[in-house]
């Protein structure tokens, strides 16, 4: 097996274990055992658990950052931007469910440089989202509500979507996008 594919296999196995047990509870020996190899073999492909954690979290964080940059650059209404944000959150949830769990639950275990990079990306993402909401309120597209409540309500739902999605047996993505946008933007009252 090529080193690049073995590294991917290590990261994939570790992401599943990190999601199940948490970063601190998983050892390199656990990862090797789940792969059916010796722990010392892992070090031919990665430097350690911290590299795995950084790869998982920063890959997903960069996906979010890239998605937000694309949304911000579009010349569409704030509501349309929020619809696009919800859609790419769903795409990331479906593509990286285990890595997303690691990002949400274990980001604080990143080492200083990677931690700083992650926090910078997260803060920038939230600030861009906040600006979209504020612009939508000012334009009369979004009801006048506290922007932080709107931001919290949408992001808390989207950040934990991987938990719900896993239990529901992989609901059709298009239905999920349609209905999630409708509920988060229009509510449930007729």
Question: Which features does this protein show?
Answer:
190 residues, 10 helices, Tetracycline Repressor, domain 2, mainly alpha, elongated
Explain what you see.
The protein has one domain (49-186): Tetracycline Repressor, domain 2 (Orthogonal Bundle). The mean pLDDT is 93. The chain is an all-alpha fold and 190 residues long. It has helices at residues 3-21, 28-35, 39-42, 49-73, 78-95, 97-106, 112-138, 147-159, 161-167, 173-186. Residues 4-64 form the HTH tetR-type domain. One of its GO terms (molecular function) is DNA binding. Residues 27-46 bind DNA. This is TetR/AcrR family transcriptional regulator. InterPro entries: Homeodomain-like_sf (IPR009057), HTH-type_Tx_Regulator (IPR050624), HTH_TetR (IPR001647), KstR2_TetR_C (IPR041490), Tet_transcr_reg_TetR-rel_C_sf (IPR036271).
What does this entry show, briefly?
By secondary structure, the protein is mainly α. It has helices at 3-21, 28-35, 39-42, 49-73, 78-95, 97-106, 112-138, 147-159, 161-167, 173-186. It has a single domain (49-186), classed as Orthogonal Bundle (Tetracycline Repressor, domain 2), CATH 1.10.357.
Shape: elongated
Determine the CATH topology.
Tetracycline Repressor, domain 2
Q: Give average pLDDT, whole number.
A: 93
- Look at the structure and name the CATH superfamily: Tetracycline Repressor, domain 2
Element order: H for helix, E for strand: HHHHHHHHHH
N-end to C-end Cα span: 57 Å
Amount of helix: over 70%
- Per DSSP, what share of the residues sits in E-state strands of 2 or more residues? under 5%
Query: What are the low-pLDDT stretches, counting only 5+ consecutive residues below 50?
Result: none
* Oligomer state of the chains in this structure: single chain
Number of strands: 0
Tell me the count of domains.
Answer: 1
Could you say what the CATH architecture is? Orthogonal Bundle
Radius of gyration: 19 Å
Major β-sheet annotation = none
- Overall CATH class: Mainly Alpha
Helices and strands: which structural class?
A: mainly alpha
Number of helical elements: 10
């Amino acid at each position: 097996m090529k080193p690049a594919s073995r590294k991917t296999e290590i990261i994939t196995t570790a992401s599943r274990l990190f999601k199940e047990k948490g970063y601190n509870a998983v050892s390199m020996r656990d990862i090797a055992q789940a792969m059916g190899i010796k722990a010392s073999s892992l070090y031919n492909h990665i430097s350690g658990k911290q590299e795995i954690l950084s790869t998982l979290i920063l890959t997903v964080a960069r996906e979010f950052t890239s998605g937000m940059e694309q949304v911000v650059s579009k010349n569409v209404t704030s509501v349309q931007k929020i619809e696009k944000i919800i859609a790419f959150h769903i795409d990331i949830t479906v593509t990286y469910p285990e890595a997303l769990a690691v990002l949400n639950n274990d980001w604080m275990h990143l080492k200083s440089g990677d931690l700083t990079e992650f926090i910078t990306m997260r803060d920038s993402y939230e600030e861009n989202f906040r600006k979209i909401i504020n612009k939508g309120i000012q334009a009369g597209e979004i009801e006048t509500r506290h922007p932080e409540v709107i931001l919290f309500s949408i992001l808390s739902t989207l950040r934990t979507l991987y938990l719900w999605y896993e239990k529901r047996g992989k609901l059709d993505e298009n239905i999920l996008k349609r209905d999630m946008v409708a509920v988060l933007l229009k509510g449930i009252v007729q």
